[in-house]
Amino acid sequence: MTKAGANPRLRSALDGIPVYKPGKPAASVDGAPAYKISSNENPYPPLPGVLEAASEAARSFNRYPDMACAGLVAELANRFGVPETHIATGTGSVGVAQQLLQATAGPGDEVIYAWRSFEAYPIITQISGARSVRTPLTSGEVHDLDAMADAVTERTRLIFVCNPNNPTGTVVRRAELERFLDRVPGDVLVVLDEAYREFIRDADVPDGTELYRDRPNVCVLRTFSKAYGLAGLRVGFAIAHEPVAAALRKTAVPFGVSQLAQDAAVASLRSEEALFERVEALVAERTRVVEALQAQGWTVPETQANFVWLRLGDRTVDFAAACERAGVIVRPFPGEGIRATIGERAANDLFLQAAEAFRKEL
Ligand SMILES: Cc1ncc(COP(=O)(O)O)c(C=O)c1O
User: Fold this and answer.
1) Cα 347 from chain centre
2) Using one digit for the tens of pLDDT, what is the confidence trace for 134-154?
3) Ligand 1 near 141 CB (within 6 A)
């Protein structure tokens, strides 16, 4: 018998928390091909060496993984030319972002981020008990860094700068980012979320792993989920000075990053040349998709990520439904716009056809 009237007390901070919406799976209609371009995943399967490393690791998943991720940390330290103590790993970069909040913010504190941006920011901020302070993107869909610096108070503990921004693909460039970092007080942590860094082709967008070097309050977030194609294995990392990196190690879920993920990540770093050829092909597809959309008459913000953003306002849901009928699942943000990942060529073609047909009906 269940005990009536005695529900466990849950933290009120969780009330009304937005639920993270994963991209819908693609469902084929009448056997026609269907593609999911709603989660910014890499369309390519793992490279051969990566698959073998993961399969090998799978042989011993009766054992716990290396909790320190020592092999991966050493590889990353070498790759970025930073001390091993400056690297902290986690279950995807969203896991690391949550650790950052646990390490910095709680009730009464404030966390600043642009909006719209990565939808996990409000969720993990609310879970921490801190208050979200959102600064609207500019009319060009770009972070308004002056407004973000103006929003800092003595309660601010953390600021997310998503570069390129999810879902708009827009970037902030060197001069404005350095000016912003100079304005933020040294006791406020600035997190440069660079989940899509490898897709950037604009030389004026700074690499956070350079910017962080003489700034102890800057933390760079990177992931193996996007360009490296390991989204399903859940591994990301931060590069930051002590004591931030040490705090991340304290707040990590013990044994959170599986040995499969660690070994696949190391193998990916060692196969970077082949991997970056694929990234280059996606960047070329991005150019093709953007130019085709522009030729159809759409306004497309300049994207440096593996996705495009169309601001559709109240036509967003209809557009997403039209894409779904055409065999591609895009990501709608009702009332605002849609985000479409650059996928395999066939998926991009279906998306472009759907966009063209929709445009003609406007
Ligand atoms: C900006 C940004 N940061 C972080 C993440 C989290 O990725 P993961 O947890 O797979 O590393 C995403 C995923 O979509 C993202 O768009």
Assistant:
1) 21
2) 999 999 999 999 999 999 999
3) no
